[in-house]
Amino acid sequence: MADVCTLGVVENKNIESHFYIESYRVEWSAFVFGLELEMFSSNLSEQEILLRIYEFRKKVRAGISDKECLDAVTGIFGDVYSFPTKTGVYPVGQHFMRARPIGDNETQIPYSTIKTVHDAWEPPRDRVCYQGRLNSIGESLLYCCPNDPILAIQEARAEETKQVALMVYRSTRPINVATIGGYRASRLPKDKLTEMFYLFLEEEFGRDVPKGQEQIYSITRNIAQTFFCHPEQDAYCYRSVQSSEKFNVAFLSGRAKSCLDLRGVLICDNQASTDKELNVRFVVSFLNSGEAVYHRVGSIAQKALFPEIG
User: Fold this and answer.
1) Which single residue of 173, 202, 256, 260 has CA 20 to 30 Å from 92?
2) 15 pLDDT band (50/70/90 cuts)?
3) What are phi and psi of 263, to 5 degrees?
4) How far apart are CA 242 and CA 83, in angstroms?
């Protein structure tokens, strides 16, 4: 379904860790899909739906409130409609990664970016001051990349910082996701109306939102909550805007800790890293109190936390 990465590690003479990254295509058996294959149907004609799509986009250009957006999105396809769905399951043991930039002025360990275990999970609700692609203000979700450290750094807009913290999580049970995007490559029906339905949702959800225009995320969030919510869902899986061939995963509020373990945190030297390898300076574990403990590469603690480093 998406490009992900395996990590192989060698240890150089200076006891630095270089994570060599090899992309590969996930086999269908590694990401199990569930499909309902009935075609899209509606009490509206194709022309009526196209007109409503046109009117919706005109409203968006003029400026639209969150309430207006919800009403417009739910009304585009008629009063009575049905559509095929695609869900997925990530297996036990799947790795997910999240990155946070470390300020260039941080020189004292522990860095303020990662001082306690709370810093390695989703932010507190009172720190969520802007809308995101799937969250409203004050709603905290854990945004991750499935086993792809480079994409995680790109999604955090952390490519230019000197150092980055890379959180590494591992699933403890199967993770049920609603999948957004990838219609053309999917096994969903390819009739004209189903195609119109899904391509509209993908285009609107995949909007590139400039900084300062976060109100546009009302569209993406309302699309997800209206058309991509399923029973027993843990997360959304959706195409990355940074790399359209790859996918991100956003865990629903309060759900991440019920299905993920935090293996630890990698503190990486961005300037010494490349697209094919990450240079790791420290690994971080956490005491029962939640306090962060930094370990040098080559230490006993590092080998226990991340034995693949060597």
Assistant:
1) 202
2) very low
3) -70, -40
4) 28
